[in-house]
Amino acid sequence: PASDPHLVERARKAKEALGDRVFVLGHHYQRDEVIQFADVTGDSFKLAQQAAARPGAEFIVFCGVHFMAESADILTSPSQRVVLPDLAAGCSMADMATFDQVEECWEALEDAGLAGDVIPVTYMNSSADIKAFCGRHGGVVCTSSNARRALEWAFAQGKQVLFLPDQHLGRNTAVLEMGMSLEDCVVWNPHRPNDMGKVAEARMILWKGHCSVHGRFTPESVDDVRERIPGVNVLVHPECRHEVVLKADHVGSTEHIIKTLQAAPSGSSWAVGTELNLVKRLGQMFPDKNVSFLDKTVCYCSTMNRIDLPHLVWALESLALGETVNQITVDQDTARWAKVALDRMLALP
Ligand code: 13P
Ligand code: SF4
Fold first, then answer.
1. Between 20 and 30 A from 130 (CA), which of 65, 124, 188, 198?
2. What share of the chain is helix, strand, coil (3-state, %, to 5)?
3. 237 annotated as belonging to a binding site for a ligand
């Protein structure tokens, strides 16, 4: 539905009143009613870069989820404030790796005499304390647009990688982009004892986490769409299961998905396996191409959708009135180590 014109006007006025003091970042999975107010839209990597590149902005309003706002707080200066318009905008994948669970895993690796050769790599979709854990143990952060480079960097430092928390991004990158075999990967289950013999032999130790949205696409989704739309190109996000990515024609981050469609010939057909707000927007952005959702039974990311126009209006109006609401802050020690891992990512070639 179209956004409420009254709220649109209020958001516009509050943003205008704040001027250059505010910078609004919008992840591609955000609602249209929110995206229209973003100064920059992007994937997780681009948004982290953009947050770091805005030292003049007093307030960064992050229209995305909690781990992204935490990263923005870590990458900006102490005088800048990062605001998440709804604090309930978390990420179920990030919640699948808690600090205690990761510490327990590391202790088990130490007991088995393996930890010295393991480099932890965490997907951006993780809490700040997991990023700090990686910073402390010589590791790095990655996003879906630089996972391969981060893994290559990590393997140049050690023999094994502990990949947190998305097993699918880890497996898809290792097997499909780096030529490893499925046998090179072992899944670490934080909820039960793991076979340390198998762990010792693996090159990739994949944390048992996944995205609850992308995990719902199936290989059958791909077969069905190919039957329904002859000649369709299937384009999916690497958070999808390995069997799904294997059947797709293209794979990449949200930014990559947009660029692929931009470059596609007029009249071509595309079935896109990623979050629904983005797929709908792609249909509007490229009316000369036939864009469909890979599987109609998969829905929005409910936590990305928590950020809606009323929350954005409330955040902007509060800032304009001099009240900082929903500020996201990471404690100094965590921020220091998480920044080490984030800076390593930003410095990847
Ligand atoms: P990217 O935008 O980096 O592709 O990430 C996708 C995602 O799931 C963010 O939560
Ligand atoms: Fe987390 Fe998946 Fe939602 Fe991204 S799409 S915020 S990974 S649950």
1. 198
2. 50, 15, 35
3. yes
Number of the ligand 1 atom closest to the C-alpha atom of 124: 3
Q: Domain 5-90+304-330 adopts which CATH fold?
A: Rossmann fold (3.40.50)
Q: Same topology for domains 5-90+304-330 and 214-293, yes or no?
A: yes
Closest by Cα among 182, 211, 207, 187 to 199? 187
CA of 211 to the centre of ligand 2 (A): 6
Q: What is the pTM of this model?
A: 0.95
For residue 206, the CA-to-ligand 1 centroid distance in Å is: 18
Distance 43 CA to ligand 2 centre (A): 12
| pLDDT beyond 70 at 273 | yes
The protein residue whose alpha carbon is closest to atom 1 in ligand 2 is 91
CATH of domain 214-293: 3.40.50.10800
Q: Rounded to whole angstroms, how far apart are CA atoms 126 and 141? A: 9
pLDDT mean over 212-230: 97
ipTM above 0.85, yes or no: yes
290 is in an annotated binding site: no
Domain definitions of the chain by residue range: 5-90+304-330, 94-210, 214-293
